[in-house]
Amino acid sequence: MKTLDELTIKDREDIDIVFINPGNLHAVYQNLASNLSAIETPSLIALFASYMRNKKASVDIIDAPAFGLSPEQVAEIISKHFNPVLIVMVVYGYQPSASTQNMPAASVTCTAIKKLLPDTKILMTGTHPAALPEQTLREEDVDFVCSGEGPETIFQVMENLNNNAGFSDVPSLYYYDNNKIKFTKPGQLISDLDSAMPEPALDLLPMEKYRAHNWHCFEDINHRQPYASIHTSLGCPYHCSFCCINAPFGKSSYRMWSPDNIIGQIDILVNDYGIKNIKIVDEMFVLNKNHVLGICERIIDRGYDLNIWAYARIDTIKDEYLESLRAAGIRWLALGIESASKHVRDGVEKGRFGTSDILNIIGKIKDANINVIGNYIFGLPDDDLNTMQETLDMAIEANCEFANFYSAMAYPGSPLYLYAKKQEWKLPDNWIGYSQHSYETQPLPTEHISAAEVLKFRDEAFTKYFTNKRYLDLVKTKFGDDVYSHVQNMVEVKLARALYK
């Protein structure tokens, strides 16, 4: 769906699949949504659309956050302009943890659609539905839930609806049969990504509406648009206890598009859309040497001037990568540092490196003229006020160009969710409580302190970091007065919290 204006001149179109990207940016980010948070490209939905097109299905995408559409407006658009065989509600996030926080918007949108079009079939897919498929089917106004990767399940449901067939042969599916819930065996993961989903269907997206994170453009703060995100791989081979990324895949996995395919996608972003700001969505981009350097070499050969950010781990950064990463335009690396306490890190399977190792790697990245976003988590199971202070002290010492401070959450699909359920720890009363920035946010307690103490420490740590003189001096020297003022204004945006006053 390119523009709302284009829809007004269409008759109600027979179409196989309408994909919906649900979302309520204000509920998720509060006042940060106005001009600080990103407006993300739903790149995975665009890849799903490409998969369906490869199989000759007709598709369209409604991106509710990009247009600022309410659930009722999404339902009205579908009822007036589309006659779909299947509606697919895609509840993914732009990081693995962001799927659950989009469930409230997805839920209300499904109900609004069913109110206007009660006979229209809805399938829900994404990280959260895959983690809790039976619960999702019971609680939401949907006919099907995908418990796996998505594309093949979606296609086969559409085909069987067209053929008035049953659904017992569709892989990774939860559905109703005579008012009883049934489920099918897991399907196979896509092995050849280049062939199955060669490029995202960007022509179905309003590419002019997407906006980079504020820090992503610290080197050019007044030009956060145009912007796009891309996948170069799917899955993650690691087993961090707080992460739910592998819920749709049923296991740890890591599959890559080829470097030739990725450079073709970047060619389109640069030459067709004039995009310089790019996010690599992969949970772990800096991992496979041939993949990383292959992509970097092709970008360097093109001579593009790009502003890319990507994820890495302390133990995946190699000296031999850094020069190529920077030359290719990768100006930011996000590192999952999590905690300064080795004991706490051991508890979440990230304990191989100590503080000195972490600071050494951050220094090497900075020496390569690549900016660093340090990601830190407060409130992991073994944390107390002292270990959280150790983490904040390390963050201040590292003095990364930006830092994200999170509270530990038991996201559905993560080992930590199962542990929290076993411990009978209080979980959020509703799915928006899994948003780190929402009013209703409800992090976990630890073995030693309450959830309210964790959240209050996190919010105060954010202010301490971004008002620290050493950090502000870095920002002013490296990025200039505009970014210095921008950071000061950012700190003034306070988040309201229900958990503490």
Q: Number of helical segments?
A: 20
Number of strands: 15
Q: Using the CA coordinates, give the radius of gyration.
A: 22 Å
Q: In which range does the helix fraction lie?
A: 25-40%
The total tally of domains equals 2
Strand content: 15-25%
Protein architecture, described:
The two termini are about 40 Å apart. The protein is globular, with a radius of gyration of 22 Å. About 40% of the residues lie in helices and about 15% in strands. It folds into two domains: about 180 residues, Rossmann fold, CATH 3.40.50.2300; about 210 residues, TIM Barrel (Alpha-Beta Barrel), CATH 3.20.20.70. Helix 11 packs parallel to helix 12, helix 16 packs parallel to helix 18 and helix 19 packs antiparallel against helix 20. It is of the alpha/beta class and about 500 residues long.
Q: Which keywords apply here?
A:
501 residues, globular, TIM Barrel, alpha/beta, Rossmann fold, 6-stranded parallel beta sheet, 2 domains, 7-stranded mixed beta sheet
Tell me briefly what this model is:
With 501 residues, the chain is of the alpha/beta class. The protein has 20 helices and 15 strands. It folds into 2 domains: 4-183, Rossmann fold, CATH 3.40.50; 213-423, Aldolase class I (TIM Barrel, Alpha-Beta Barrel), CATH 3.20.20.
